[in-house]
Amino acid sequence: MHLEIKRSYFTEQLNDVLKAISNRTALPILSGIKLEADNDKLVLIGSNGEISIEITIPTEVDNEEILTITEPGEAVLPARFFTDIVKKLAGEYVQLKSTDQYSIQVSGGKSNFVISGSNPDEYPLLPEVNNEESLKIASSALKTIINETNFAVSSSETRPVLTGVNWQFFENEIHFTATDSHRLALRKLKDKSHAIEIKNAIIPGKALHELNKIIEDSDEDVEINFSQNQVLFKYGNLRFISRLLEGNYPDTSRLFPENYETNLVINNDEFLKAIDRVSLLALESGNSAIKMTIDSNRVVLSSNSPEIGNVEEEVTSVDLEGEPLQISFNSRYMMDALRAVPEEEVSIEFFGTMKPFTLQSNTSNDVIQLILPIRTY
Amino acid sequence: MHLEIKRSYFTEQLNDVLKAISNRTALPILSGIKLEADNDKLVLIGSNGEISIEITIPTEVDNEEILTITEPGEAVLPARFFTDIVKKLAGEYVQLKSTDQYSIQVSGGKSNFVISGSNPDEYPLLPEVNNEESLKIASSALKTIINETNFAVSSSETRPVLTGVNWQFFENEIHFTATDSHRLALRKLKDKSHAIEIKNAIIPGKALHELNKIIEDSDEDVEINFSQNQVLFKYGNLRFISRLLEGNYPDTSRLFPENYETNLVINNDEFLKAIDRVSLLALESGNSAIKMTIDSNRVVLSSNSPEIGNVEEEVTSVDLEGEPLQISFNSRYMMDALRAVPEEEVSIEFFGTMKPFTLQSNTSNDVIQLILPIRTY
Fold this sequence. Notes:
Oligomer: homodimer
Number of helices of chain A: 6
Number of domains of chain A: 3
CATH architecture of the largest domain in chain A: Roll
Largest interface: A-B, 34 and 33 residues
Strand order of the largest sheet of chain A: 16-13-14-15-28-27-26-20-24
Domain DNA polymerase III beta sliding clamp C-terminal (chains A, B): 254-375
Largest sheet of chain A: 9 strands, antiparallel
Domain DNA polymerase III beta sliding clamp N-terminal (chains A, B): 1-127
Strand content of chain A: 35-45%
Helix content of chain A: 10-25%
Distance between the termini of chain A: 70 Å
CATH topology of the largest domain in chain A: DNA Polymerase III, Chain A, domain 2
Number of strands of chain A: 28
Structural class of chain A: alpha+beta
Shape of chain A: elongated
InterPro entries (chains A, B): DNA_clamp_sf (IPR046938), DNA_polIII_beta (IPR001001), DNA_polIII_beta_C (IPR022635), DNA_polIII_beta_cen (IPR022637), DNA_polIII_beta_N (IPR022634)
GO molecular function, one term (chains A, B): DNA binding
Keywords (chains A, B): Cytoplasm, DNA replication, DNA-binding, DNA-directed DNA polymerase, Nucleotidyltransferase, Transferase
């Protein structure tokens, strides 16, 4: 391998590939980044066995020549170490050149590094994902969907399927569901164009979290392909592959109650800040439960801890109807849900002290957040 | 106690006092902040037993009334919890009001907190420091002195005196010395005005670090008073008290060699970046040693690790004279020292492969950094 590449552009791409690479890996070669230089492109590959990222760098970007390949070749180099070097080198360009036995000389400015690598033939092949089960979503829409649901996946491995987001494919709609069994986020997307024949796929929350960091908030399409065990996201020069979670996702459709007893419409930001304040006392006493009392015309948040003190804050409602109510909930779940309803006004429907309640935008029902109360009464 | 205070100003002062307060304290009451409200001022006190901070808030600041005291009184409240509440409350002002038995009601916007406190009579008295042994330094100069020396104190408690900076008082000069026995920083300050009769005082590095975060880069004077065991820094409405370290500070005056064998003058920033790059390889192989080779007209940094690779970088010298040299040093110590010589060009004097070398500004000898080489040859 012998090539020269624009350092700033190369650093960005390396940083993206790093998102799939872990130093704590059972397979030591996976702590490396694979470089495949061709006559007219350089491919970067990183993988932690669960997520794999492949980025193809062309010789020209926006009519500027950023890559000159003098001699094709392959290499596997320690990923973080190599990226740090490229980042800190002087000079606008960096040169890579094979020396003996898997080693690569990395030069820029007046620096010359020689880095020992691994045998590229030992790097595992990335999973194959065919193009049959295919779907397109604009990257900005995909980011929104991830932001509205991904926070609610379970962080516990007790029920592995709950660590993922369940994508359900209907004829004209896709549903995205995440739950840790204490709260649930459901996003619905109207989509008539997809060619997906499977019923559902469970995508690991960690994969969606990393994908969200790489794709930009633009109207460029992300093409998504599903195979038996894998999902592939294609976005510009990026291929992002994740394994799917195996197992049956619980049926959550019956969780949503109908006919609320109490409906509260409230300013999202003001409510979020009030809960943040009141939760200070709950957190100081080592839990996250705060109490809400609704009577005919007042909404009061409160928390009480004999050792530490107590707090009460009245919040102003935009609209309030139905039965009086006392309910306790986890303040963090409430704040997460409010942040995931990106509208100025939120409608909260309650079905009684012991029943789950739901949050929705006051103007759309694309996204619905459900929270189980805490039994304190 | 019953008072009202401007929230933004109060938050800033609380944040400063917090710098002396630790949650991991042997004396539980010290995790609290003490408030003493008088007819015309509010005093905030925090202490971890080693550092104490006292801030006096007047009723007016810059002709604006920021504090109204309706009823004097004292309280001790959980410091971080109380500060978080004040920070997150709504409204421009916050009200504090004693309720029963050491509790304080904290109100702002529509929030009402009641916080349980401790008995203010049980809060320890701050050490007394008299005004006899006194000295004034502009806060900007004091910050510079701390930045140039404090990084070199020892982080190990093996020799406690080395965790502090030694202030030595001469008739017309003050010397500030910090060393962890691998490197040393010495700052000299011409000062004829001081009225200090003690020979020296060892101030804990941790105290100077916190003080540095509080005082601003201005020409306002800091008045410094020494007593037997304590030092007091007075700055505006702040009193910052630290214990002094007991014991004899080693005599470091004989460490500085004369008549260099090799003298290298080099651009500070370029040299720092080159060392930062070359150290990447050393760090990847788990140590910090890099090698420098000087011959008649070339200066080359290098590092070599059989498993990981090697690196070589030539650096451009501004001036170079004397004997050829090979020397190894800790890259972190070199970078720390370069950052503490705040001049564009640095003069480095070497006295042979095994002897300590020194860094100084090319234009002034107020500050001198000394580093012991690593024996690798």
